[in-house]
Amino acid sequence: MGLCCFSALAAEHFNNADFSEGFTNWGLHVHKSLKVQRSIKDGVLSIQIDEAGKHQHVQLIHKVKLVEGQQYRLSFEARQDGKEVKTAIACLQLGKPYKNYGLNQTATFSNAWARHSFTFAVKGLTQGQTPTIRLFLGNQTSVQLRNFSLVDIAKDAKKTRTKSGAGEEYDGVALKQKPIVKADDPKVFLRVHEGQILQPVPPKLFGFNHNWLWSNRLAMENSDTEKPVISPEFLKLLKGLPLPLNRMSGSISQTYHWKWAMGPMSERQPQKLVGHDTLSKKPLGPLEWVDSTLQIDPKATFSWTFNLKTETPQDHADLAELMVGDPKVNANGGMNWAQKRVDYGIVEPIPVVIWELANELDWGRGRDEWPVERYINSCREVIAAVRRVHPQARFAAFASTAAWSNVHKKTPGGWKAWHRKVLEELGDQIDWIAFHPYYHGHHTAYVEKYLDTIRDDIVAITGSNRIKVYISEHARWPARPKNKPWSTTWKTTHDLSGSLAAAEFLNRCLQRPEIEAAAYHSFSGGPWGVFYRDKQSEQLYTTGIYDLFVQLGHSLGKQVVQTQLTGTATQDDFTFTASAMTSDDQSLRLILVNRSEYPRIMTLTTDKQYRSAKARIFTASNMSDYNTAQQRPIATANYPMNSADLSQIHVPARCMLTVQLMR
Length: 663
Prior knowledge:
Blueprint: E1 7-8, E2 27-30, E3 36-41, E4 44-49, E5 58-63, E6 71-80, E7 85-93, E8 100-109, E9 114-121, E10 131-136, E11 142-153, E12 158-161, E13 173-177, E14 187-200, E15 207-210, H1 212-218, H2 232-238, E16 246-248, H3 286-296, E17 302-305, H4 313-324, H5 337-344, E18 352-357, H6 372-389, E19 395-398, H7 416-426, E20 432-434, E21 438-439, H8 444-462, E22 468-476, H9 496-509, E23 515-520, E24 531-533, E25 540-542, H10 544-553, E26 559-567, E27 576-582, E28 588-594, E29 600-605, E30 612-619, E31 635-639, E32 648-651, E33 655-662
Parallel strand pairs: 1-13, 14-29, 15-16, 15-23, 16-17, 17-18, 18-19, 19-20, 20-22, 21-22, 22-23
Antiparallel strand pairs: 2-5, 3-4, 4-11, 5-10, 6-9, 6-11, 7-8, 7-10, 12-13, 14-26, 24-25, 26-27, 27-28, 28-33, 29-32, 30-31, 30-33
Helix pairs in contact: 4-5, 4-6, 6-7, 7-8
């Protein structure tokens, strides 16, 4: 995976900056004596003017919302036919007297594409005025424009910078950690409509990514036996953790050869999974992974990520036969892989509920080798091969990786182009679009804008909402402080702040019926982990993420119902989130996440009356607290409820509170 250019991580202030929605939200002011033609193709706006020199009389205009005193960066790419021409760029009041708000620059357009960038601070903006960004194009005869962006440059935000490490989705992006602001009013209001079902509770929303490298190191005994041995310490540590969905994640999935990790150790072939791995035979293959997972949770289901880089459609069909085939019917010919599974001891078909069509082939060093057309053709081959063995197979195709990255601005249509083409070509053959949103990093509300686009495109392109969204990776992204090792922030993935970030994101996912499944990144590996091995004692131990998911797994109801949540930091910031579920036992289940340093008083209104309540709290003394083998400051405990007045619930600072109201 390569590095993208540095850029500010901020909300985009242009609507339809890439012209993916045509000329929507843009305006073109033209003097009535001029003839001007405009067209849009592949994200490029072309403007033809019949008479050059009318500088003030051809203006490209976009209304924006700006803040007095705030700094902003405007950028775009442009070219024109003919000699070099100077063009004025300004930020002006919408109407008379056309006050300038701090931007008054010129750019020289030539016949080669060039990127232009301007930084300015807003001056003179008062309430009620509407600022606009304007390009004065009257000196041109033919001009093309693309990739507009207007973002704020935070003065006081804490900036960090990522670097290559356990993942590269934020490589080269300056992250601004959004501060948590104290609510002016601690009151929040939750209205629950028990009769309005939003969706059935999707248990697969609370799944995990596993990792071939780290699962080999942590889940298996280090022994020389002919048959690999699953670690009893590993099984004992994680017993009781719900594992509703399990995926093998990451770039390794695109180089891993499953056939090389089958059978006795003497029959296996050595593999080097990543650069820092050693070339060796791996004791944990697909069947050991499934076996160990089912021993922790017998109800576990699985998501398999096909290796499109180095394996063939025949390999994929054989894998499907191994996982779900009937040994009495050698559906794929040749080796009876289903019988291999039975011989290993897994008699029943393995519940693979999602077959994922590769992982992030559009990203990193090999992205140029995998244009979307090649990906789609490979997907067709895989789908056809697997369905010959497993007609009921359901598939997920991925959307653009790191959709927020400037890398995608080089692609006509931007990040959206990939999943839109996939939907157009494969919409009748797939069941999910897979997306990888990492957050905090980007705050959750910003991430949801990308989910909105995918959701809306599914309906617009396919004509229905049958295809769902699969969040096949998600987690808090650990920022790399400038001039410090990245490892200094790795703990933020699983300290209290990172754990509550995950709780917040999952709570929001419950409100989005298009999201059917998700896999937290990750079960083990890199900065992320449900469990680790202590370097000193060599004992395995669990992080706060383990306790978080145990509590969530025991708090779910049957149906997610409609809620209305109001109050400070409940809309765009999501410092406080809430969801509600009804249950077969007539109880009402609430998940309340307060990510701020301040307690909130929640007024609860329900359709039905409830007589008593019990609750559990997930919290620690400080947001930076994290669990180790020696100390466990993050913990869960019973939380006292005032059953005499269930309309007022006190939600402490820095916590997830799960509440069960009984009738």
